[in-house]
Amino acid sequence: MRNKIRILFICQGNVYRSAVAEQLLRQFAQDAGRADRMEIFSRGLQGFNGTPKPRFTNLRYYDEEWKAVKGTLDELKISLEDHVATPISREDVAESDYIIAMSQDIYVVLLNAFPDNHSSIHSFGEFEGSVDGIPDPEGQTDSNKHRMTVLSIRAGTATIFKHLETWFENGH
């Protein structure tokens, strides 16, 4: 039995959605005294298997989106300023217990790219009874839309954390 569970969040570029989910799950784990039992990280599809990497490696370089979301991130004590977008690797997938796709389109790509890991791959929305997950807010400049995106990620991540708590309670 491994003493840590590995949770991997994946979105398109690992610039926004998966990075926010990673930070929020770290907060939940820290607050519950479970940080030492979880390895939480995030990756993106862009840059994997020869695809182009994101235009920038950090959300703060996307000026309009950054201005629209920074207040909500600060309010929730989410820091992405040191985050560097990283493409997913086969090793990341092979070594993860939970691979959580931030949206349905990412989920489908992961199922096709990693057929041997189907049992570990989940859609973010499935933890709340939805198939959609979190839509990519790329290009959005409305701060209310960004706020709703971050709050939706927070709510979904809280549900995922509750699921993981059950995993721990069952002796893992």
What would you note in describing this structure?
With 172 residues, the chain is an alpha/beta fold. It has one domain: Response regulator (Rossmann fold). Helices cover 41% and strands 12% of the residues. The protein has five helices and four strands; from the N terminus they run E-H-E-H-H-E-H-E-H. The protein has helices at residues 17-31, 63-75, 90-94, 104-113, 143-169; strands at 5-11, 38-44, 98-101, 121-123. The chain has a four-stranded parallel β-sheet. Strand 3, helix 4 (104-113) and strand 4 form a beta-alpha-beta unit. Helix 2 crosses helix 5 (143-169). The longest helix has 27 residues, at 143-169. The radius of gyration is 15 Å and the shape is globular. The model has no long low-confidence stretch (mean pLDDT 92).
